[in-house]
Write a structure and sequence with these properties.
By secondary structure, the protein is mainly beta. It has helices at about 20-25, 180-195, 325-330, and strands spanning about 15, 35-40, 60-65, 65-70, 80, 85, 90-95, 105, 110, 115, 120-125, 135-140, 150-155, 165, 215-220, 225, 230-235, 235-240, 245-250, 255-260, 265-275, 275-285, 285, 295, 300, 315-320, 325.
Amino acid sequence: MPARTPSASRVLVVTLLATSAPALAATTPSASSAVVTGSVPGTPRDTTGTRAPGAPTPGAVVQGELAPLQVKPVDGPHLSLQPATAKPGDPVLVTVRGAASLPTGTLAGRPLRFFAWHDGFAALGSLPVELAPGTVTVDVTAPGRGLPVLLSSVLNVDPPGFRERELRVANKYVSPPKAVKARMEADRKAFAAAFAQPFRAPLFGQNFAWPREATVTAPFGDRRSFNGKLQTQHFGVDLDGVTGAPVVAANDGTVVMARDNYASGNTVLVHHGAGLYTAYFHMSRIDVKNGAKVKQGEALGLVGSTGRVTGPHLHWGVKADDRWVDGQTLLKLDFTGAPAASGVAANASGLGTP
């Protein structure tokens, strides 16, 4: 029976385009990085390391054999959390590096909203003040170069140690008269509108700083009783100060409220993007207008005692992920893109308690 010639469809042809000797050397199996080789059955191969008789020289068309390919190692997506250990009422910065596109995920079952940040992606989540101590999980699905990768981490939550306090204020702030009910409702609507900004990438590029250097007279989370009746929780950090002392923006952003409110007095709200806002209450004077673009350290107004207060001070609030969170924890978060180990906070220097 005469020999059959293999059909063209069964002949694998790979053209080696070698333009120089160094380029050829980089594609040989002796290169330091991993290589993948293959062959088509029925093609003569010489396993002694020399070229088989009749084999084509490098740079020619090779029939029946795969050219060596270099495979560059690829780091998979990885996850890091700040702070390393949290408490109820804390903001939590979730960072993902190595993802091919925008990740999705949850913190304690609550959806995270990711944005592109430095060489990866980040999301700013929050823990509720009523959260019990223990652990919460962070689950993120990160698109990779192939199939999506599921990243999971556990965040330890310590007891918050919130204080109990009783304060004395003007009785009209405990039992508001009917005449101010309409004003209070207008205030509520104004706050809701200010906090309804569309989600967008951060407007800042550096870490947060104190709005004024002063003693913390009341930390976040204090449980308060006003005149022995009204029970509330303190969703901000109070900074001591005399009337007329300057108040500055904690970071870059856009003013979304510059308004006199019944309980918070002269109030400024700054939107920083990423679902993050800072609030400045009880000021004696407001020096910015709604819609103004402000930079970190730019004057917003002056310390005062307007609204429901016991004396002059600045109430500084932080709202992230639609929850009031502890501003002192926000100051410890590193937004600069510095590498952080999984579950380890990389705190910025010089941002301690004033």
